[in-house]
Amino acid sequence: MTVPQDAPSTVTTELVYYLPPLDGSAPYNDISAGPASGQPQRNWREDRHQVEIENIRGKEDSVTLDTAGFQFFRRAATHKAFTNDAEVEREYYPESIELIKELTGASRAVIFDHTIRRRRPDETEDSPQKRQPVPQVHVDQTTASAVARVHRHLPPSDAPALLRRRFQIINLWRPIGKPAYEWPLALCDFRTVDTKADLVPVTLKYADRNGEIMNVKYNPSHKWKYLKNMEPDELVLIKCFDSKTDDGTALCTPHTAFSDPTTPEGAPLRESIEVRFLVFYD
Ligand code: OGA
Ligand code: FE
């Protein structure tokens, strides 16, 4: 199948934002019941809105990690199979660490997990072994969860010193096997996010601990972008947290998968991998 890269520059689609629980209780996603339960339990409400999403192919340079909170690059990976987690850790992790250090100028990059997503249109299940695209606007971390990650994944002897310097959490996301023709990833330009009004911490209840992510309230100012038919040799760095809060630097990027109305009939289903990094600077 050949797909022209000259499709319209903007699509209109529905995104799922956040509304708080009606009873005023603190919002949560409960995934403690594990894979068998299928969908996570949650107490917050969905808020669906039609938005425009701009295809920025051809002007990828208009967004950077420090301005918009995300940045596209073309860099092939040597590992291409992504069928076996142990192999991914042995082969894809080391090359990704070198790559993110090169692309960001960081002095140290530590991977704390990865997620492979394959769309399965006939299944609602979204368990750890069968992750699907995420059709909800979110940010993967909060300040509390980012700091907790440093303590969890780095030696106690290193963590305090690392926390005194600039650190970030960044996801390295790329399609697997073929371009992401369908259910691509939309990213929201940080310059259009009102961090105080739009971002809401939501507890993530695991069986053994609590984490925290951010859900996002609708704001008509949000400017959404994507890279249409993004290829396996392309990647996007998605900033989930930055400790540099003093000068307008992008702190994070709301993002979501979406149904692209310009996807050709019969396009193969999206597969992707995202690797999550703690990123440190000297
Ligand atoms: C992510 C993410 C969702 C998707 O990479 O953090 O939310 O649909 N991905 O790929
Ligand atoms: Fe995410």
UniProtKB/TrEMBL annotation:
Q: Which GO terms describe its molecular function?
A: oxidoreductase activity
Q: Tell me which InterPro entries the record gives.
A: AsaB-like (IPR044053)
Recorded superkingdom:
Eukaryota
Could you tell me which residues belong to the region Disordered?
Answer: 116-136
Per its UniProt record, what NCBIfam families does this chain match? CmcJ_NvfI_EfuI
Provide the family line: Belongs to the asaB hydroxylase/desaturase family.
- The protein's name: Methyltransferase
Organism taxonomic ancestry: Eukaryota, Fungi, Dikarya, Basidiomycota, Agaricomycotina
